[in-house]
Amino acid sequence: MDAIVYTQIKTSIKRALNIDLEHYKDEQMKRRLDSWLVRTHIETWKDYFQLLSTDQTELERFRNYLTINVTEFFRDPTRWDLVRQDILPYLIKNSKASHPVVGGLKLWSAGCSIGTEAYTMAILMDEAAPTQKYSILATDLDRGALLKARSRGPYSQEDIRSLSLSQRHKYLTPTAPYHAVENLQKNIHFQEQNLITDRFETGFDLIVCRNVVIYFTTEAKDVLYAKFSAALRPGGVLFVGGTEIISSAAKFGLQNFGISFYKKA
User: Fold this and answer.
1) Residue 180 and residue 152: Cα distance in Å, rounded?
2) 28: domain range?
3) Angle separating helix axes 3-17 and 56-66, nearest 10 degrees
4) Residues 6+ positions from 160 with CB-CB distance below 8 Å
């Protein structure tokens, strides 16, 4: 895909879907777009955008494809073990010392996809701090993924592979297709959100944004890290993907708090 065609596609996507691909890495997005056009069996992007102008279902399919969804319960279990053993006890202690609020811990799954991360957070709270009050905001741009998240599934065997047998029995429906149990959703609020353009709530104790920022340009990453820092309480923690490193974290008011974790100063 040459630069002229890609520029035209970006313009058409922004007009049709209000998604700005300028924030995404060019080569990754070009490959993703090329793959999509092949799947549609339509020869040109001009013809495809003509279809989008009249087919709302196809428009939603394309919108959902452009937002990248790779997720599962307790993805990268060793990192979640650190949340259980170190981060959560620290957050509870920090919360009691600095803001003993009635609502308890305020948590956010940013780029929540189909909901497995938000439900992972709810499972962790139920297991590790069953008496602790908390709320979880779970946001994503993908409306199809949010619909599945709000419906608590269905989730595949691959999605639940990191859950123990006892966790499956307690937190999922007993047979496939698997759904999270209704009680697990009681403290979660799912909401559509564009991380780049929308304003963030503030006062979060923990923000989990894993394997989302990696698809963005350096400039877009800087915008997001500054916004995440502003959304955290003093002492709050940002939990990122296992391969993500925030260069010059101090300029965002963050400091390293272990692999994958950054604390607001």
Assistant:
1) 5
2) 3-66
3) 120
4) 72, 73, 168, 172, 178
- 29/105 same-domain check: no
Backbone angles phi, psi at 89, to 5 degrees: -60, -40
Q: What is the pLDDT of residues 157-186, one digit of tens each?
A: 999 999 999 999 999 999 989 999 999 999
Instruction: Return the H-helix or E-strand segment holding 29.
Output: helix 26-40
Tokens of 151: 């419906």
As a whole number of angstroms, the distance between CA 134 and CA 190 comes to 15
State if pTM tops 0.70: yes
With beta carbons less than 8 A apart as the criterion, state whether 264 and 254 touch.
yes
Half-sphere exposure of 36 (CA within 13 A, CB side): 21
Residues 27 and 55 in one domain: yes
User: What is the tally of helices (H) and strands (E) in the chain?
Assistant: 10, 7
Burial class of residue 231 in the structure, from the number of CB atoms within 10 Å of its CB (0-12 exposed, 13-18 middle, 19+ buried): buried
Q: Would residue 72 count as lying in a domain?
A: no
One domain for residues 128 and 159: yes
